[in-house]
């Protein structure tokens, strides 16, 4: 027999290696959020809101507050709400059954009343330019005096209770939430209670134990009696799902602090974790900053087992029976048995068996240890870390969860348990109390705690990009100058070298989502603000009359953006990625997905790439090669994140329409042609989702299930299309030079049809999201995305008619078209000068 020179084993081995290499090459980046979740875990229950609604008192007014003697830095851009007996007109009635998302009516009414300039045209706009102009005429009336746009940033339902509990425990209800506040909070809580008696985890979520247990407690602490119908229904819902013993861990934590749940039933949060060596893979300094900064005050309070004297307080002691099954005796509950218990309806991200074992081991440590000296050193470190965060953020802290915990911790640390009065006089506590209003907002649904201390930088940046794209900067000169000034002033100048002791990277040159004093800049907010600044600085009126911005400050932003790129080519949110996706095995939260590390995101990457590209066009000499390399690596990351159906999942906006917009724009700015396979696939995906009325729309289930969720009717609309999602889809399609012009035109027609007579657009469903499971309002989003879309359509129009103003040459997807029509631009410029 003749033997072949290549043995069968060699062929098999080579084949195997090739397959392995192919699989490895095609593997998803660690940041890929995963395909659709299994049907058994998908969101099928729907929220059902009550028909009746609860009115907010007339008398609430927004105002700017900037003065303080206790804070380390000047307060900037803080919108606070004051209540005066001098009544304004009654706010419109909120109708949760129609739409649980409020439309910021009180704030807008107040702004429109103050407005002294010209009123928008009442005529029905006949062309795109008039629609955009009318929109801006309205929007300029909402601008705050300092140049930013403020607005309602509500949505999550687990934030307000933390603030109320902290205020109650510290005995500061009267200072933090005096009577009118309590009334407005009651209205909010009652408006969002659902027909089944529960509350959702966020504004559009069906009732969960997370939402219900916390909001029930808040309702009682702001003065609603246990016998009232809302409380009875709330108790019924909780009891149907096992009572507070089945609440998720973050809710249990607040209950333990309030003394209505015992610490033995809490999974340990040992402060010793901060003493692990830096190289250790599980060091908390590697966690996503939001996760790390929530568990920081938690571990400090946990180590002290701080507990309010509930037995001496009438409401808290009543809660000890209200929160549990009828007849269940608080003193007889075996708390230890409920450490891991959580209701099925809440269990979005079940605790992994590995984490359970770890928690069991830690429970043993808590029982037989902990070594006193170790606990002291680690607790002292945690406290020092918290104090440093307070100073860096001007007592705002990174977000609302940590804010409420720091408020309480600062009081406990100042000796509040033994001498409440002297604790109340401590500088830290007073400063914390002063910064509570930065998180509060009043809308027609009541007083809420916002997801952040506002979204000013984000909204202002997009608004100005839209003004540039619409060619309206000179027409709205005062508005643009004020916004420019605000953006220049809000660039972060602190921590140029980072604060590595507390795992803080250098942040100089960045922009935060809200303000500079909050001191937590985000990669994509930096990029979007940078884009706005780069576009505006070229504008004649800004050059002549705007406050100067040194080039060095722009270079700082470039350094910031380049240094925030991750090894996988993408950009994360606040920091470089410092851990691995297997950290999710340790996710202790049950209710949030993907919170353990700062992943790379398509949205953040696309924004960063676009900003760097725009910069390079203006400064071709500055770090051009590095920038070009970074953009190409970014594009490869975006390609790797595309799903097999051609879409991109949106992690911070609801949902695929948002992801697709960023995915396409990112690839285009890296020079990929609109005809490349990924872009064509995405265009096909989007066109396949267009509704018969010409629009697009996704329910929040898209985010939760990670699968496109169309509905026949979405909140606040008469169809399954919303203006915001339609505009995102259109921006993506137009940037991709979509050949189906008719589809684009039908989408634009829907946007035009839905413009209100005021120039604004209606508030529809929830547009923002975080951690897969929580919806969050994006206040100005509707307006700004729409204007951008219409401006892009207008761009098309100018291009055809030969009247393209120079400032409109910005649309990335159009760069190829633009280059061919450069002479056209020149002509337009000449004409403008003439
Ligand atoms: C935000 C709001 C803005 C958002 C964008 C800039 C839109 C996004 O592109 C990047 C991520 C970022 C900055 C973001 C991250 C998570 C935040 C801070 C939030 C959604 C607002 C509230 C949320 C925060 C985590 C809420 C507190 C809850 C915890 C689970 C800690």
Automatic annotation (TrEMBL):
It comes from Durusdinium trenchii. InterPro entries: SQ_cyclase_C, SQ_cyclase_N, Squalene_cyclase, Terpenoid_cyclase/PrenylTrfase. Keywords: Isomerase, Repeat. It is an enzyme of class 5 (isomerase). Coiled coil: none annotated. CDD domains: SQCY_1. Belongs to the terpene cyclase/mutase family. Its EC number is 5.4.99.-. The keyword Repeat applies. This is Terpene cyclase/mutase family member. Residues 456-768 form the Squalene cyclase C-terminal domain. Residues 179-389 form the Squalene cyclase N-terminal domain.
């Amino acid at each position: 027999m003749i033997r072949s020179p290549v043995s069968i084993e060699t062929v098999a081995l080579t084949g195997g290696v090739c397959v392995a290499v192919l699989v490895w090459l095609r593997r998803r980046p660690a940041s890929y959020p995963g395909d659709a979740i299994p049907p058994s875990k998908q969101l099928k229950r729907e929220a059902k809101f009550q028909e009746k609604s609860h009115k907010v008192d007339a008398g609430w007014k927004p105002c700017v507050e900037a003065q303080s003697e206790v804070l380390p830095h000047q307060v900037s851009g803080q919108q606070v709400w004051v209540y005066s007996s001098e009544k304004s007109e009654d706010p419109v009635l909120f109708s949760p059954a129609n739409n649980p998302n409020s439309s910021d009516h009180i704030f807008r009414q107040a702004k429109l009343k103050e407005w002294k300039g010209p009123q928008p045209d009442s005529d029905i706009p006949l062309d795109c330019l008039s629609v955009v102009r009318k929109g801006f005429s309205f929007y300029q009336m909402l601008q705050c005096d300092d140049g930013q746009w403020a607005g309602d940033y509500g949505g999550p339902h687990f934030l307000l209770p933390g603030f109320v509990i902290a205020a109650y425990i510290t005995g500061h209800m009267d200072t933090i939430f005096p009577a009118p506040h309590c009334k407005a909070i009651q209205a909010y809580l009652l408006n969002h209670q659902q027909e089944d008696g529960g509350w959702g985890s966020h504004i559009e979520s069906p009732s969960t134990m997370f939402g219900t247990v916390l909001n029930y407690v808040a309702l009682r602490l702001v003065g609603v009696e246990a016998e009232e119908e809302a409380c009875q229904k709330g108790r019924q819902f909780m009891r149907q799902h096992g009572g507070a013993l089945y609440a998720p861990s973050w809710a249990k934590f607040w209950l333990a602090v309030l003394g209505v749940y015992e610490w033995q039933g809490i999974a340990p949060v040992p402060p010793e974790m901060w003493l692990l060596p830096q190289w250790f893979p599980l060091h908390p300094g590697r966690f996503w900053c939001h996760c790390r900064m929530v568990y920081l005050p938690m571990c400090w309070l946990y180590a002290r087992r701080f507990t309010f004297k509930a037995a001496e307080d009438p409401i808290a002691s009543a809660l000890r029976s209200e929160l549990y099954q009828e007849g269940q005796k608080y003193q007889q509950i075996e708390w230890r048995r409920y450490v891991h218990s959580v209701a099925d309806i809440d269990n979005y991200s079940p605790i992994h068996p590995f984490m359970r074992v770890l928690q069991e081991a830690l429970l043993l440590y808590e029982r037989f240890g902990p070594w006193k000296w170790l606990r002291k050193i680690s607790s002292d470190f945690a406290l020092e870390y918290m104090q440093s965060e307070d100073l860096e953020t001007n007592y705002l802290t990174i977000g609302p969860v940590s804010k409420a915990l720091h408020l309480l911790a600062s009081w406990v640390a100042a000796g509040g348990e033994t001498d409440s009065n002297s604790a109340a006089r401590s500088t830290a506590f007073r400063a914390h109390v002063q910064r509570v209003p930065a998180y509060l907002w009043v809308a027609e649904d009541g007083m809420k705690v916002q997801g952040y201390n506002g979204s000013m930088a984000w909204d202002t940046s997009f608004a100005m990009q839209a003004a540039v794209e619409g060619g309206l900067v000179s027409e709205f000169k005062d508005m643009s100058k004020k916004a420019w000034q605000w953006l220049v002033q809000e660039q972060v100048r602190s921590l140029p070298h980072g604060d590595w002791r507390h795992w803080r990277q250098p942040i100089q040159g960045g922009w935060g989502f809200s303000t500079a004093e909050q001191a937590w800049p985000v990669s994509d907010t930096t990029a979007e603000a940078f884009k706005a600044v780069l576009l505006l600085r070229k504008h004649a009126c800004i050059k002549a009359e705007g406050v100067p911005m040194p080039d060095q400050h722009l270079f700082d932003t470039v350094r910031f953006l380049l240094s925030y790129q991750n090894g996988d080519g993408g950009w994360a949110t606040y920091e470089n990625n410092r851990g691995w996706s297997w950290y999710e095995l340790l996710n202790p939260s049950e209710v949030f997905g993907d919170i353990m590390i700062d992943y790379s995101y398509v949205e953040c990457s696309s924004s960063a790439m676009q900003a760097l590209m725009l910069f390079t066009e203006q400064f071709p000499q500055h770090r051009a090669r590095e920038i070009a390399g970074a953009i190409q690596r970014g594009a490869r990351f975006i390609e790797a994140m595309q799903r097999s159906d051609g879409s991109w999942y949106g992690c911070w906006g609801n949902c695929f329409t948002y992801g697709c917009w960023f995915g396409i724009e990112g690839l285009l700015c890296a020079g990929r042609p609109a005809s490349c396979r990924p872009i064509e696939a995405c265009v096909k995906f989007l066109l396949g989702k267009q509704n018969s009325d010409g629009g697009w729309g996704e329910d929040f289930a898209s985010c939760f299930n990670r699968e496109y969720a169309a509905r026949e009717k979405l909140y606040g609309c008469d169809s399954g299309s919303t203006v915001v999602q339609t505009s995102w889809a259109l921006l993506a399609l137009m940037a991709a030079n979509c050949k189906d012009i008719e589809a684009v035109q039908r989408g634009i027609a829907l946007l035009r049809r839905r413009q209100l007579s005021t120039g604004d657009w209606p508030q529809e469903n929830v547009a923002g999201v975080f951690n897969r499971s929580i919806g969050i309002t994006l206040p100005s989003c509707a307006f700004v995305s729409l204007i951008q879309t219409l401006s892009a359509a207008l761009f098309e129009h100018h291009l055809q008619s030969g009247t393209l103003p120079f400032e409109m040459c910005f649309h990335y997807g159009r760069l190829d078209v633009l280059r061919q029509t450069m002479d056209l631009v020149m002509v337009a410029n000449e004409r403008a000068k003439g």
